[in-house]
Write a structure and sequence with these properties.
Elements lengths: L1 H8 L2 H21 L3 H59 L3
Helix pairs in contact: 2-3
Protein backbone atom coordinates (compact mmCIF):
# COMPACT_ATOMS: atom_id res chain seq x y z
CA UNK A 1 0.00 0.00 0.00
CA UNK A 2 2.82 2.37 0.90
CA UNK A 3 4.64 1.79 -2.40
CA UNK A 4 1.41 2.27 -4.37
CA UNK A 5 0.82 5.56 -2.55
CA UNK A 6 4.41 6.64 -3.19
CA UNK A 7 4.18 5.70 -6.88
CA UNK A 8 0.84 7.41 -7.44
CA UNK A 9 1.29 10.51 -5.25
CA UNK A 10 5.03 10.82 -4.67
CA UNK A 11 6.83 14.11 -5.45
CA UNK A 12 3.63 16.06 -6.02
CA UNK A 13 5.27 19.50 -6.28
CA UNK A 14 7.67 18.22 -8.93
CA UNK A 15 4.91 16.51 -10.87
CA UNK A 16 2.70 19.62 -10.73
CA UNK A 17 5.57 21.78 -11.96
CA UNK A 18 6.28 19.35 -14.79
CA UNK A 19 2.59 19.26 -15.77
CA UNK A 20 2.45 23.07 -15.73
CA UNK A 21 5.53 23.36 -17.92
CA UNK A 22 3.99 20.84 -20.33
CA UNK A 23 0.76 22.87 -20.35
CA UNK A 24 2.65 26.07 -21.14
CA UNK A 25 4.54 24.35 -23.97
CA UNK A 26 1.32 22.94 -25.45
CA UNK A 27 -0.43 26.33 -25.23
CA UNK A 28 2.51 28.05 -26.92
CA UNK A 29 2.49 25.40 -29.64
CA UNK A 30 -1.26 25.85 -30.13
CA UNK A 31 -0.86 29.60 -30.54
CA UNK A 32 2.03 29.27 -32.98
CA UNK A 33 0.43 26.47 -34.99
CA UNK A 34 -3.36 26.77 -34.66
CA UNK A 35 -4.70 23.36 -35.60
CA UNK A 36 -7.29 21.11 -34.03
CA UNK A 37 -4.64 18.64 -32.91
CA UNK A 38 -2.53 21.27 -31.12
CA UNK A 39 -5.58 22.67 -29.32
CA UNK A 40 -6.62 19.16 -28.30
CA UNK A 41 -3.12 18.53 -26.95
CA UNK A 42 -3.31 21.81 -25.00
CA UNK A 43 -6.72 20.83 -23.59
CA UNK A 44 -5.39 17.41 -22.56
CA UNK A 45 -2.38 19.04 -20.90
CA UNK A 46 -4.70 21.45 -19.05
CA UNK A 47 -6.86 18.58 -17.79
CA UNK A 48 -3.79 16.69 -16.56
CA UNK A 49 -2.38 19.78 -14.83
CA UNK A 50 -5.78 20.60 -13.30
CA UNK A 51 -6.15 17.04 -11.99
CA UNK A 52 -2.68 16.80 -10.47
CA UNK A 53 -2.78 20.30 -8.97
CA UNK A 54 -6.12 19.39 -7.33
CA UNK A 55 -4.50 16.35 -5.75
CA UNK A 56 -1.64 18.53 -4.50
CA UNK A 57 -4.12 21.00 -3.02
CA UNK A 58 -5.96 18.22 -1.20
CA UNK A 59 -2.66 16.87 0.13
CA UNK A 60 -1.62 20.24 1.58
CA UNK A 61 -5.10 20.80 2.97
CA UNK A 62 -5.01 17.45 4.76
CA UNK A 63 -1.46 18.06 5.97
CA UNK A 64 -2.43 21.43 7.42
CA UNK A 65 -5.41 19.89 9.21
CA UNK A 66 -3.21 17.17 10.71
CA UNK A 67 -0.72 19.76 11.94
CA UNK A 68 -3.51 21.93 13.33
CA UNK A 69 -5.03 18.94 15.09
CA UNK A 70 -1.64 18.04 16.58
CA UNK A 71 -1.22 21.57 17.95
CA UNK A 72 -4.73 21.50 19.39
CA UNK A 73 -4.09 18.17 21.10
CA UNK A 74 -0.80 19.45 22.55
CA UNK A 75 -2.57 22.52 23.95
CA UNK A 76 -5.27 20.33 25.49
CA UNK A 77 -2.72 18.02 27.11
CA UNK A 78 -0.76 20.94 28.53
CA UNK A 79 -3.96 22.50 29.84
CA UNK A 80 -5.01 19.25 31.52
CA UNK A 81 -1.56 18.78 33.05
CA UNK A 82 -1.55 22.31 34.41
CA UNK A 83 -5.00 21.79 35.95
CA UNK A 84 -3.82 18.52 37.53
CA UNK A 85 -0.72 20.21 38.96
CA UNK A 86 -2.84 23.03 40.31
CA UNK A 87 -5.20 20.57 42.01
CA UNK A 88 -2.31 18.66 43.54
CA UNK A 89 -0.74 21.88 44.85
CA UNK A 90 -4.04 22.89 46.39
CA UNK A 91 -4.34 19.52 48.06
CA UNK A 92 -0.79 19.75 49.41
CA UNK A 93 -1.25 23.27 50.76
CA UNK A 94 -4.65 22.57 52.26
CA UNK A 95 -3.43 19.61 54.36
CA UNK A 96 -2.85 20.33 58.01
CA UNK A 97 0.60 19.44 59.26
Amino acid sequence: MRSLNRDMYGDLPGRVKQAYEELCARQTEAMQNPQTSTFEAAADAWEHWHHISGIEEQFYYQKSRVQWLGELLREMVVSLLLKQISRERQQLTSRPF
